[in-house]
Amino acid sequence: MPEDINIIISNLIEKLKLGTLISEPVRVMGGLLNRMYKVNTSSGTYAAKHLNPEVMKRKNAKENHILAEKIANIAKNNGINCIPAKIINGTVLHEIEENYFLIFDWFEGRSIHEDEITIEHVKKVATLLAKIHNIDFGEIKNECRLGNELSEVDWDFYISKVENEKIKELLINKKEYLIELDKKATIARKDISNNLVVSHRDMDLPNILWNADNIPTIIDWESSGVVNPCEELLETAWDWSGGQDYFDDKKFHCFVNTYKENGGDLNDLNKAIYANFKNKAGWLEYNLKRVCKLECLDDEEQKLGEKEAVRVINEIIMFYDILNNFKEQI
What are the residues whose beta carbons fall under 8 Å from the beta carbon of 212, sequence distance 6 or more? Predict the structure, then answer.
């Protein structure tokens, strides 16, 4: 695939009548799921997102991507700084040679690293999240499939399949803990499932770009769906408090308080702590599938899966060690 991707993108640009390539597409590093390319053509500069071929084999994958871009457009029309995919020939999803792409206008901005997070960043992202949660998405809420998952992971299956010794040992040592969290998460998510909003669901550091004026713009809406507002609040506050690299309780509390001050809903906060495990378990399971080559494009993706699997297991341990102690404070 890597050696053919330039030809595929060139053919796609021609098919979509976006001009002629001025230079070869340049891979933009950083994505954990899809692959992004900067494309310079005679008509402008674009970002071509090559959607993960293994993910696109899933049932409803194409419909979910189309719906996500509808959500992004509604958010933009309601004053949220974001970048929806371009609608070309009546659609946002473009297929060529069994590959699927989204095309975006190129945006000059950058994501920040964990050690660059300031209180100003925290307040701006928390305000954005509260605003999104207060948007009326209308009937589109009933179309969302993502966010209602309640299945529990078969950890023994992955223990039997994983060949990476470090990951296998981590899974064996933490299996009972993961099972316990999964069961608590199922109960908690059921308890708060009557309070759902449509949202981005993945507003971590790589998915927010900052321009020269330090104004945030949200990208990568493909995880959009329904979510309990407190569940997403905790996940996003965690990410913008350092997440797995460190934890800054001042940033965490600032995020929660700013969200509340901007009309955010805190009613389900304690139950959402456990419900949040479903998100982490889902991402961990997907990366275990990469590790086992059950859903894996190539060696690069398998190595990324190995790195992410270890990171997420350690993050889960840290997340619950810290947030269980914050129940009475938040």
Answer: 108
Please report, for residues 175, 198, 306, the alpha-carbon distance to residue 238 in angstroms, rounded to integers and kept in the order given. Answer: 23, 20, 22
pLDDT at site 2: 45
Domain with residue 234: its CATH number is 3.90.1200.10
Query: Do 23 and 48 fall within a single domain?
Result: yes
Range of the domain at 77: 5-105
Q: In the listed set 83, 105, 127, which residue is the last one of a domain according to the structure?
A: 105
The b-or-e profile of 135-159 (16+ CB within 10 A means b, else e) is bebeeeeebbebbeeeeebebeebb
Q: How far apart are CA 144 and CA 193, in angstroms?
A: 14
Q: pLDDT by residue (tens digit) across 166-209?
A: 999 999 999 999 999 999 999 999 999 999 999 999 999 999 99
Q: What mean pLDDT comes out for the span 79-104?
A: 95
The per-residue pLDDT for range 253-306, each reduced to its tens digit, is: 999 999 999 999 999 999 999 999 999 999 999 999 999 988 877 888 899 999
User: What's this model's pTM, rounded to 2 decimal places?
Assistant: 0.91
- Residue 253 has, within 13 A of its CA and on its CB side, a CA count of 9
> How many distinct structural domains can be found in the chain?
2
Phi, psi (5° rounding) for residue 72? -60, -40
Residue 320 pLDDT > 50: yes
